[in-house]
Design a protein that fits this description.
Radius of gyration: 23 Å
Oligomer: single chain
Helix content: 40-55%
CATH topology of the largest domain: Rossmann fold
CATH architecture of the largest domain: 3-Layer(aba) Sandwich
CATH class of the largest domain: Alpha Beta
Distance between the termini: 34 Å
Strand order of the largest sheet: 3-2-1-4-5-6-7
Number of helices: 19
Length: 412
């Protein structure tokens, strides 16, 4: 009965999405993208052998993709004749990674109705499916089980207040029973699952540690960042929102001996123009029009393209990371792997790595300008902040190999 009600709710959502899309660009983009998913998948599946070993990875968005990517690439290397299908729920993941060369087919995940899941899985016919972190979809999971596909949930991290552990959590048990194995990030998640009688669980850690180490080994060469920085102290504002940019605007007025590279979380024209207007008095220049010999007085460089942030961090003396004043912090491990001191807003407690980095003295939570100024002044003038971020990342690597080893016991 619950599954029936659940499916009806998703069908109603599916009907109303076109109307919601009139008022929200992200919803509209996702709706349009999903319209072609089944036909695209069907065309692709018909182009490969019927008995092809299909491995399906599903990620909500870009952050989850980065967690799934090390496992995806390791499996492809281990099984070069297999084919990879990759789905995203959010346009912010799909639109950025739709041309990713590591997957053989990439598309949106249709909404989790009974008929969508049945049709999608019937066409795809995966041998294995990997769902990353928070992605739990009842109809897809039960359909995978019906089709005898092995289903692994990787880099899972759960909290006691989530639906599975409430008094009504029993209604989700059929979905959870469809999971072949849980690979979780921490002991708390393992204990929570054990408490509701799931013992096909092991702690493998977070695959993001493996990913950032791999990125740091082969950073993108960015000669323009050296041309902008020269011999100055460089603060990188990574994946920023207006709250962080406002703080940096005040910081630039207070501390004249710094330059700032601003990398907004979104680079659509409205946000970029907003950033230009905010930093105009500091000679702000866009990366797309930056000329080292001409923009010598610029103290702010605004990056209006994507895909370079992790390599930009390598050139920073200090970082203010975005998201800490909003719904959630962005990836602090991309900074820690280079041993660069970082600060971020107060909304970090759901992120274990951020909590750990603070305890190590590699990261500093701030509430406003005074704390940000103190942090920058300490790094700028004393360079006395102990930073164990790089060592922390290296010590927590290995989740990918743990997952690969864990799934071996389920191999036919």
């Amino acid at each position: 009965m619950f599954r029936f009600i659940y499916s009806i709710v998703w069908q109603i959502i599916e009907v109303f999405l076109p109307f919601a899309g009139l008022f929200n660009k992200k919803i509209r983009t996702g709706y349009i993208g999903r319209k072609s998913t089944i036909s695209s998948l069907n065309t692709w599946r018909n182009s490969i052998p019927d008995d092809a070993d299909v491995i399906w990875f599903h990620c909500a968005s870009l952050g989850e993709f980065e967690q799934g990517r090390p496992v995806m690439e390791a499996l492809k290397k281990q099984h070069p004749n297999s084919v990879i299908a990759l789905t995203f729920f959010s346009p912010s993941g799909y639109e950025v990674r739709k041309n990713y060369s590591g997957a053989d087919w990439i598309g949106y995940l249709p909404l989790d109705t009974f008929f969508n899941a049945q049709k999608f899985v019937k066409i795809l016919r995966p041998e294995q499916a990997f769902f990353v972190k928070y992605e739990f979809w009842m109809n897809y999971f039960l359909q995978l089980k019906k089709n005898k596909a092995k289903l692994y949930c990787i880099s899972v991290i759960l909290r006691e207040e989530q639906r599975f552990f409430k008094w009504h959590g029993f209604i989700w048990k059929p979905m959870l029973k469809a999971i072949t194995h849980f690979f979780v990030q921490n002991d708390n998640t393992l204990q929570l699952l054990n408490k509701i009688k799931f013992f096909n669980v092991e702690i493998s850690g977070d695959t993001r540690f493996d990913r950032v180490i791999e990125i740091a080994k082969f950073p993108i060469e960015l000669p323009w960042i050296s041309s902008f920085k020269k011999n100055n102290f460089l603060v990188v504002l990574g994946s920023s929102y207006t709250e962080e940019e406002s703080l940096i605007e005040m910081l630039l007025s207070r501390i004249p001996d710094i330059k700032v590279c601003v990398v907004p979380h979104e680079i659509h024209s409205t946000r970029i123009q907003e950033s230009i207007a905010r930093f105009d008095k500091f000679g702000a220049v866009l990366l797309s029009s930056f000329q080292p010999e001409k923009n010598t007085e610029a103290r702010v460089l605004i990056v209006d393209s994507i895909g370079m942030l992790s390599s930009i961090y390598a050139e920073a003396n200090a970082v203010l990371l975005g998201g800490g004043f909003g719904k959630g912090l962005h990836n602090s491990l991309e900074i820690a792997v280079y041993g660069v001191p970082m600060a971020f807003g107060p909304n970090y407690k759901k992120f274990q790595e951020a909590v750990d980095l603070i305890q190590l003295g590699a990261a500093f939570p701030i509430e406003g300008l005074e704390e940000l100024s103190s942090f920058i002044e300490d790094v700028l003038h004393e360079n006395s902040i102990p930073n164990k971020g790089k060592k922390y990342v290296e010590e927590h690597a290995g989740a990918t190999s743990a997952i690969l080893k864990g799934i071996e016991k389920y191999s036919a």
